[in-house]
Specification:
The protein has helices at 2-22, 100-108, 115-121, 135-143, 145-154, 175-180, and strands spanning 36-38, 43-44, 56-63, 68-72, 77-79, 165-170, 181-185, 192-196, 201-203, 206-208. The protein has 210 residues and is an alpha+beta fold.
Length: 210
């Protein structure tokens, strides 16, 4: 009898431990790099993502106290920066600032037509506010590319290519470069180069959620 009771207590203890390990509330669903943004505007750990129950729209690639940035799960295609050359006012023209949201707003409020911005503003999502990444945001993504790619694969998103991607940052080196060129960045390695504004370049949307 005593032995049966001991075995019973051991089974209860093991069951409790297993239950604790499997509880969803033990998952880290905080705003951290690699976690997945769902279409209901909630964030989930890749460990808790279930493709049959969840619909991912992006992966967090940068997070600190004041700023959390998400990259969309879908490749958008190739687009040009603008259909005419000229310096667009109020765009932050470097490759360090995390300012895609501000740059996109500045381009939209200018007299210039940007096919890249237009297509990003039509990005299909239940969550609004998508923008063309700044060069600095692309470089921030490159710093965490291994983590982001792993989560992107789990979420069923498109992988990044070994190509240059369009940013919303004009090349601010000189007045002439600002007028004619923008920075493109390869998210796989962070390489930055200058591209003419009428050259088509690969595009992906980002979202600031804090």
């Amino acid at each position: 009898m005593k032995m049966n009771r001991i075995l019973y207590l051991l089974v209860l203890a093991l069951t409790a431990l297993t239950s604790c390990e499997e509880r969803p509330d033990e998952l880290d669903n905080s705003l951290k790099v690699g976690n997945i943004l769902l279409d209901d505007n909630t964030v989930i750990s890749p460990l808790g993502y279930d493709k049959d129950r969840h619909s991912a729209i992006g992966v967090i690639f940068y997070a600190n106290v004041d700023t959390v940035l998400v990259v969309g799960t879908k490749e958008i295609g190739k687009y040009i920066y603008s259909d005419s050359v000229g310096t667009i006012p109020n765009v932050i023209n470097d490759y360090t600032s995390l300012c895609g949201t501000e740059n996109t707003a500045a381009i939209m409020s200018s007299e210039f037509n940007s096919p890249a911005v237009e297509i990003v503003k039509q990005y299909q999502s239940n969550v609004a506010g998508w923008a063309v990444p700044s060069a600095g945001e692309w470089k921030a993504l490159a710093n965490n590319i291994a983590i982001v790619r792993k989560s992107m694969a789990l979420a069923g998103g498109d992988d990044f290519l070994q190509e240059q991607y369009l940013s919303s940052s004009q090349d601010g080196t000189t007045a002439e470069t600002t007028e004619n060129f923008y920075y493109s960045v390869c998210p796989m390695n962070g390489f930055v180069t200058s591209v003419h504004k009428n050259k088509m370049t690969r595009l992906r949307a980002i979202l600031r959620i804090r």
